[in-house]
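Changelog excerpt

This revision adds worked examples to the README so contributors can see how folded entries look when concatenated. The first example is reproduced verbatim below.
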Amino acid sequence: MDYKYIEQLLERYWNCETSLEEEEILRMFFSQTDVPANLLPYRDLFLYEQNEKREVVLGEEFDQRMMDVIGEAQPVKARVVRLPQRLMPLFKAAAVVAIILTLGNAAQVAFNDNAEEAVNVAGYQKVVEGPSVAMGDSVQTDTLKKAIQPTATIILK
């Protein structure tokens, strides 16, 4: 037998050009018992709707049960959020930035090795060499000799 019309309908079906009547023709053709071997792979596609049971649609009783469950639910109370509470994360972020900038500035001054600082104390000029002002007046211990060596030079005028 020649199944050119069915093959043409299949080609149009794959291109989404068939009408509902032509799709019904394909379903009826594939519901027959003798289908050619070359068209047999498409049979399950068109018989799927007939073989599957219809799904049970939820009835009115389901809707009523759901409405009863919804009605029993406790109402949700709205919480008042004031402006300072909303801005609290911004305040915290600004505090963190301020702390980081302060620590960065302190670290920059503390670890500045090349700076010679002159400090005026009651008319005396004191020149301190060393990593920082606090460390300038102290003495350093030589780690190899375990001897104490002065590190600051004080010039009094």
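The second example, added in the same revision:
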Amino acid sequence: MEQTDSKSFEALMTRLEEITRKLERGDIPLEESLKMFEEGTALIGVCKKMLDSAEQKVRLLVRDETGEKLVPFDGEGEQ
């Protein structure tokens, strides 16, 4: 598997979609399918970490002026 640390989220998702398409076709040998499945699960982990990091950044950016309370994403609490 290629190094994923320096790739963008979008590039990782594109690779994951490619793997998914190939696995869904079902025309590749079992050994290759297992390798692709392993790569896919690793990519999911990396993407999840990237999304978690982005969520934390968003949470920091949407704090109200007191720094205590997060602004809700769903619009609740707006006046």
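Reviewer comment on example two: DSSP finds two helices and no strands in the chain. The chain has a mean pLDDT of 84.
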